Amino acid sequence: MSIYKIPLYLCIYILFIGCKSSSGSADKAPEEVIAIPPSVPPVEAPTEPPVAPINSDITCTGLAKVNIVEAIATNSLNSYTANQVIDAKFLPESRWSSLENSAQLTLTLENFTLVKGLSITWLNTDQRSYSYDVEVSKDKQTWTSVVADQLTDALTTRSQFIEIAEHSAQYIKIIPKGSNIDSTNNIIEVEAFGCSEHVSSPIELTDWYLSVPVDERLNTKAESIYESRLNNHYFNAEFFFINNEGGLVFRSPIEGAKTSTNTKYTRTELREMLRRGDTNINVKGVNKNNWVFSSAPENDLDAAGGVDGELIAELAVNHVTETGDKSQVGRVIIGQIHANNDEPIRVYYRKLPGNNKGSIYLAHEIEGGDDIYYELIGNRSQSATNPENGIALNERFGYQIKVVANLLTLTITRAGKADVTQVVDMTNSGYDQGGQYMYFKAGAYNQNNTGNAKDYVQTTFYKISNSHNGYQ
């Protein structure tokens, strides 16, 4: 015989019902006691997971761009509406404008975040300087002032980054107060930076330096961020920063300083540095900072920092230029091998304005000679139709550049799709001669200098891995 135990609280309940029945009025019949079937076990109430209160503060390290999902304003002028400050376009015609000094622009962050800074692009092509306040809120009800009476730089049309008093928030309110010219407020783009947890990139940068298309002192020649400075948490809200997924973002507008007088285009790009910060080794030359092909002369093999090479990258192209000459629009170089003066390989991504997917092709430059092009996905034509097997903006993919002696291989990888590979025989290309040294490059090398000055290219890298024989 099975014996079923009745829980204590049910026993007490049954006894209570029985007592109440016996002491009730004589006119009422005794209440019926309903027994719980022995086959139904008692059910415990589910335990709810603890929920962090909305007013809890966040403690975290690092600095990354955080997503803004909504922008609303108390007043807008004509078609210059609030949502245009978060549309990832830096063109003057895509902005928010207001005639009211008291107008407010409220931004909603995707997540509750420790807010650390704002990058704001103001419309000031006429050298106007704006005054503004910033407030933050956790609940959109109670607001805390973090910036008061801030003045913008009237001499720049670039984005202006401002650190703010760190507060945990999900809402940011910008309160412009007009300019030194009139009461009109004009904001082209707003980006927020902070963290909700520890933020860092998994990409090691100890053997790279970075070029950004502005000289932070003279604004004439591209700034070079060498190894030690780059690895000391270098951050530039306009050109180079971490996103909320830990990816490294490279942005390069059409306007900007070039790396040399011979360069036609701007770039935000890494350059391989095998010396790892040892400034006793020159940047250029067949030395321990650079590598050579294994087909090079023996003296060069001994002197170089590495022999042959492989670069593996995972990335997404986020934006390409949409304005300018048809021959240049939509192009960006995402990886290279650079030699003394020429490039054994340049890897291009190109998406035309009328297409929703882009193509991949490479250029192999003969040393001292012409380029030879190879198309891997779609084609490089300025009138190309939408490539059936193309790569969309923000779609993650990978590439591998590999050199063994005079054999160069580029492989494009994508989840769920077959790899696409192109092999180039460099036997007659001239890079196995004495004195030819190599280095990898990766980032966003804009290939358009004809469009709107504010138009830009942007890539996000999630992996950059370089290796060479004999290099530790």
Itemize the secondary structure elements and their pairings.
Blueprint: H1 8-22, E1 64-66, E2 68-73, E3 96-98, E4 105-122, E5 130-137, E6 143-151, E7 160-179, E8 185-195, E9 208-212, E10 223-225, H2 227-230, E11 240-242, E12 248-253, E13 267-272, E14 291-292, H3 298-303, E15 306-319, E16 331-338, E17 345-350, E18 359-365, E19 371-377, E20 397-404, E21 407-414, E22 417-425, E23 439-446, E24 456-469
Q: How would you describe what is shown here?
A:
- The protein is mainly beta and 472 residues long.
- The protein has 2 domains: 64-195, Sandwich (Jelly Rolls); 208-469, Jelly Rolls (Sandwich).
- It contains 3 helices and 24 strands.
- The strands form 3 sheets. Strands 1, 2, 3, 4, 5, 6, 7 and 8 form an 8-stranded antiparallel sheet that branches. Strands 10-9-13-23-16-17-18-19 form an 8-stranded antiparallel sheet. Strands 11, 12, 14, 15, 20, 21, 22 and 24 form an 8-stranded mixed sheet that branches.
- A hairpin with a 6-residue loop joins β16 and β17.
- Mean pLDDT is 89; it is low at 1-53.
